[in-house]
Amino acid sequence: MHPGLTMWMPPGQNQSWVSEFILLGFSSGPTSNRVLFIAFLSLYLSSVLGNALIITLICLDVQLHTPMYFFLCNLSLLDMSCVTTTVPQMLVHLLAHSQTISFAGCWLQMYVFGALGLTECIFFVVMAYDRYVAICHPLRYTVILSWDRCTQLTAGTWACGFFFSLIHTFLTMRLPYCGPNMVNHYFCEGPSVRSLACTDTHLIEMVDLVISVFMVVFPLSLILASYIHIGQIILKIKSTQGRCKAFSTCASHLTVVTLFYVPATYIYMRPNSSYSPERDKQISLFYNVFTAFLNPVVYSLRNKDIKGAFLKVMGWGGMAW
Fold first, then answer.
1. Based on the structure, what is the number of domains in the chain?
2. Ramachandran angles phi, psi of 16, nearest 5°
3. Nearest CA-CA partner of 173 in 158, 188, 186, 187
4. Pairing verdict, β 100-102 and 182-183
5. What CATH number is associated with residue 229?
6. Residue 113 belongs to some domain of the structure
7. Domain for residue 107, yes or no?
8. Residue 125 sits in which domain range?
9. CA distances from 47 to 56, 130, 298 (A)
10. Helix (H) or strand (E) holding 200
C-alpha cells in the first residue's frame, strides 16, 4: 500500500484513502537544508518581531491611537499570523526525516492560511478607504471613521475572510484523495493539494475562480478607484510640499499592496494549464514570507510617527536624530 493511505471499504467496493500528505517543500541535501533552515528562520523571526514591534508601539503610544494605525495594527497581526501558519512547519521539515502532515492538519492549515490571506485581501481595501477619507475629506475624517465604524469594518473583514476560506477548504478537502499523497509545496496550499484528487476538479476550480474574482479582483478594483480619486485631489494641491506630504501617506500602502497582490493574483488567477509547482512555491514564498518581512520595514522607514514612538519607548525621545 502507498505510504499515507488507509483502507476504507464501503459496501461492495474497495478503495484506498489518503490519511496524510507528504510536503516536499524545498528539501534537497542535508547541507542545503541547513542553509535554508537558517535563512528561513532568520526571515521568520524578523517578520514576527518586526510586526510584533509595530503592534506594541501602536498600543503603547496614545498618539498612534488613530484609525490609520488601528488598521496598521490589524495588518501586522494578519502578517504575523499568516507566516506563523506555514513557516514553523517548513522549518521542522527541513531538519526532520519525516515531512508528513495529517489529513486533518492539512485541512486546518489550508483553512487558516486561506482565511488570513483572504482577510488581508479585503483589509487592503479598508486601508485604502482610510487614506481616501483622510485626503479627500480631512475635516470629516474622525466623523466618518469613528471607532465604531473602524471596529465594524475590521470585524466584517475578518468574518468574510474566514467564511470564504471555509467554502474553499471544504470543497477542496472533500474531494477523494486515493492515489499519490506527495504535495509539491511547503504547505497545504489549495491548488497543490487539489491536483492530487482522483476525480474531476473542474467544478471546484470554477468555484475557486469566482471566490478569487470576488476576493482579489473586486478589492483590487476598489483600491485602484480610491487611489485615482486620491491622485486627482493631490494634483489640485498647489504647494509642492503639500503634494509630497499627501503622497507620502499613501506610498507605504501602495508598496505593500503591490508586494501582496501581484504574486497572489498570479497564483490564484492564472489558468491551470500554466501550473508550475516549483515556480509557484517560490512565488507563494514571496507573498507569504517576504511580504510579512518587508511590511514592517516599509512602514517604519517611511513613517515618522512609528520611528518617534520607537524612540519614545526606548527613552531616546529627547535625542536629536
1. 1
2. -95, 135
3. 188
4. unpaired
5. 1.20.1070.10
6. yes
7. yes
8. 20-305
9. 14, 25, 12
10. none
Per-residue pLDDT of the chain (321 residues; tens, 9 = 90+): 445 544 333 343 444 477 889 998 887 777 888 899 999 999 999 999 999 999 999 998 888 899 999 999 999 999 999 999 999 999 999 888 888 999 899 999 999 999 999 999 999 999 999 999 988 888 999 999 999 999 999 999 999 999 999 998 998 888 888 878 888 889 998 888 888 888 888 888 888 888 888 888 889 899 999 989 888 888 887 777 777 777 777 888 888 888 888 888 877 776 665 567 777 788 888 888 888 888 888 877 667 788 888 788 777 655 544
CA distances from 101 to 23, 29, 93 (A): 7, 21, 10
Residue 146: all three cell numbers together? 469613528
Beta strand pairing status for 20-23 and 182-183?
parallel
- pTM value is 0.86
314 in any annotated domain = no
Pairing label, strands 20-23, 100-102:
antiparallel
**Exposed/middle/buried for 266, CB within 10 Å: 0-12, 13-18, 19+?**
middle
Write a three-state SS string for 67-130: HHHHHHHHHHHHHHHHHHHHHHHHHHHHHCCCCEEEHHHHHHHHHHHHHHHHHHHHHHHHHHHH
**Alpha helix stretches (DSSP H) within 18-65:** 30-60
In a domain, 1, yes or no: no
Give the orientation angle of helix 240-269 with respect to helix 202-212, to 10 degrees: 170
* β 100-102/15-18 pair status: unpaired
Residue 5 is placed in which grid cell?
A: 493511505
